[in-house]
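Q: What would this chain look like folded?
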Amino acid sequence: MKAMIFDGVGRPLRLEDVPIPEPGPDDVLVKVGAAGICGSDIHIAIEGTTVPSHVPIILGHEAAGTVALYGDAVKDWRVGDRAAVLPDVVCGNCVNCWNGRSELCLKRQLIGIHRDGALAEYVLAPARNLVRLPDGVSFEAGAIATDAVATPYHALVRVGQLHAGETVLVTGLGALGLHAVTLARVLGASWITAATHHARAGQRARARGADAVWESPRADQSQMFYDLAVDFSGEPSLIETAIRVLRPGGRLVLVGISEKTFSTVSITVSSLVRRGVALIGAYGAHPGDLSEVLALADSGRINLENSVTHRFALPDAYVAIQHLADKWGDPIRIAILPSLAESIPSALCRPLLA
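A: My prediction, written as structure tokens:
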């Protein structure tokens, strides 16, 4: 099969012919219909801030496609079934897996970071990682749903415990933040404010349902108004703003990781204690989250098709990563389509449904 191989930071991925993986008893081989490009791919291939377990390795942790082959112990999948593939490979036996927190598995591995990923014609995954992809949801939408949509859904619903009628602040408006705005509106938030340093992102947030946009969050934005804040930026200034504007008893969920995340965030502990503010980290998603997201997309309650703004052929995967890193063409999410003969770096193409 054709695959894009990563073997070092700053080096273009190279196209190679490699053997098609063979499923173990509990595995499923998926023919990739689409693979999403994510910030993690930038961290690995360009920045070097995320280090894969080994090189060479096939990157790509957002995938959707059709079942091509499966192991002897797999009972629920058949050749040709449409599926989205969660990237978190879990053990199923640790305390977190037992308690329904498989996204925090103590032995967690990630497809595209610890195992070969989806920037290839086929990807191998445990059967438990597959979630059925409705016929009305494209491969591109299914692929980005595995992370760029399931992750904010998990942060809002499972971790943030969002209830209808609550007020929400979303900080950081990349793909995850924009999808958080979309989801918060659908889930019944009474007021949504989106905070960003980028005017174009603010415009997109308004189009997705934000009631207000802070394009330059400031220290004087201190009204304690919000029940829930979710940060997707990892930027200390935005995190500090979020803490200030939470009401007593409010919750701040931290999702974003960036180079700035390792800077100091100024927090007055007594203020958190006296206001009863909760700070919680959220990571990834589990199959139930993805299944619920895909149901929302299939029902038409959320539109994921317009989130894929650029589509690239497999040999151009490194160019696609550069596009996302440098924001060339103002992308939201980028999809790699192994079946595509020529890249289409624009939003003016139809989603691939079959």
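The longest strand covers residues 27-37.
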